[in-house]
Amino acid sequence: MLDAAIKALSQMISPPMRSILWRSVGLALVLITVLAIGLQRLLSWFATSGEVWLEGLLGPGWHTSLEVLSWIVSIAAGLGVVFGGVFLMPAITSLVASLFVDDVADIVEREHYPAEQPGLALPFSQAIFEGIKTALLTILVYLIALPLVLFAGAGFLIFFVAAAWLLGREYFELAAMRFRSPEEAKAMRRNNAATIFTAGLFIAAFVSIPIVNLATPIFGMAFMVHMHKRLSGPRPELIEPARQMR
Predict the structure, then answer these.
(1) Which NCBIfam families is this protein grouped with (predicted)?
(2) How far apart are CA 172 and CA 59, in angstroms?
């Protein structure tokens, strides 16, 4: 696993990958800026008008609880752009990865596995769907973990573990679906859940590093191409005939 991570890191700055890297970084910067600002404004609204609206909806018995929540959200809103950028990076990279999955995988397979059957490009709609699904799940985890960030770092730990699971799952399935049906890819991920979660910890650690994490789609995809190859082995018979004819 460490060897796969080192190979992915070394290939990130290789000449064939640089164009994808810069496009990925540029898109990630635009998306993270837009979403972080939007999050800050949403939290600001909740800290003011949202508290009154919720109290009217839930009743006066919730006044104290909503005041405490409003206080927490007010602090979060003040730090929204900074922490939003950090916490939302896994969601952003999930979206970006879905756009560049085949570009990255093609280069990795061509350089490291030239004698094996290459994978087939995923349908664009399918790749985007997987990216959006993971991004929305990541944002949901962020919202759940946010109130706990102020208490002994529990929110950070929850978010890190969840990000490892979500990102490991997405990147592995994207790599696997180049050779297998979505159902087979998901089944393979479940059968190797512990290994893939551990691999996801590498990606979660990478996405936690400011600035460097803009390259997460390249690292995560290249890393999981290696992991899929190692878990499946050079077995062309696993590739579905229907996929070969597509």
Answers:
(1) PRK12768.1
(2) 46
